[in-house]
């Protein structure tokens, strides 16, 4: 079974993000009734919440083609023109990490999004002149972990903005159960719940943990994923009951031990735990902020009382707290 069969194909099968789905269903239906390209969509939120999956679902529901790329992959204007030139009327162009598009490419995208053309400068010096290049109407779906880092002109050109949120326990449990059935694995409801609880609101993590739990179940219990097996496997992965992994705890522990819990700047934290700044900012920090273990202040990040209590309970911070 490949990774793709894990992805739902229709909005109906897409679990969670109910508010977004409700609105998208209307925009999709309206665009189809008018036989027009749907307006451009910006999906933003932490990694692993299903932005790419949702983009594929939208294209599928619109019954149009989709081309997938990412901001850093489009290095020059020519790369973008090649992508745009490949689109048929109504198609979706999905650009992941759209906040990482090079400036010149981003600027070329403005007219493409707004009026479906690009102007290409041909020749050099006094003979340089723009050549007008019309495009088929298309739907750009951009994905970003942080809408705040997108330039205002870029953001303003998206008619539909969708803020993806962390999934609640019941949605995650449903996703885990669905994935298990794709794997044709037998899973106890309590085991699905255990995986859900430890996946920090993120389907990608839930599905990854499920794979490891399944490995354990195949070795220890002839494939039945029991709650007991799930616990053993998840403990071995060092994922605790709040879904924190070793890096999360190292981050909080370092802040406590070296900086008295803060305030401390991101650069100092990054250097101390040997992770890059962007990874911390996009992957670790948002969830720790969401569950209230970290706080952001004008002078830097601080570990909250809740954060202290959790590390103490996990017995990972040995100091006097
Ligand atoms: N797999 C990953 N994310 C999903 C979602 N939101 N719904 C259904 N299956 C998924």
From TrEMBL:
Catalytic activity: ATP + H2O = ADP + phosphate + H(+)
Chain positions recorded as Mg(2+) binding sites: 52
Positions contributing to DNA binding: 277, 296, 301
Coiled-coil region list: none
CDD domains reported for this sequence: AAA
One biological process term in Gene Ontology: DNA repair
Chain positions covered by the region annotation Small ATPAse domain (RuvB-S): 168-238
Region (Head domain (RuvB-H)): 241-321
Note on domains (UniProt): Has 3 domains, the large (RuvB-L) and small ATPase (RuvB-S) domains and the C-terminal head (RuvB-H) domain. The head domain binds DNA, while the ATPase domains jointly bind ATP, ADP or are empty depending on the state of the subunit in the translocation cycle. During a single DNA translocation step the structure of each domain remains the same, but their relative positions change.
Subunit description: Homohexamer. Forms an RuvA(8)-RuvB(12)-Holliday junction (HJ) complex. HJ DNA is sandwiched between 2 RuvA tetramers; dsDNA enters through RuvA and exits via RuvB. An RuvB hexamer assembles on each DNA strand where it exits the tetramer. Each RuvB hexamer is contacted by two RuvA subunits (via domain III) on 2 adjacent RuvB subunits; this complex drives branch migration. In the full resolvosome a probable DNA-RuvA(4)-RuvB(12)-RuvC(2) complex forms which resolves the HJ.
Name recorded for this polypeptide: Holliday junction branch migration complex subunit RuvB
Protein species of origin: Granulicatella balaenopterae
Gene this chain is encoded by: ruvB
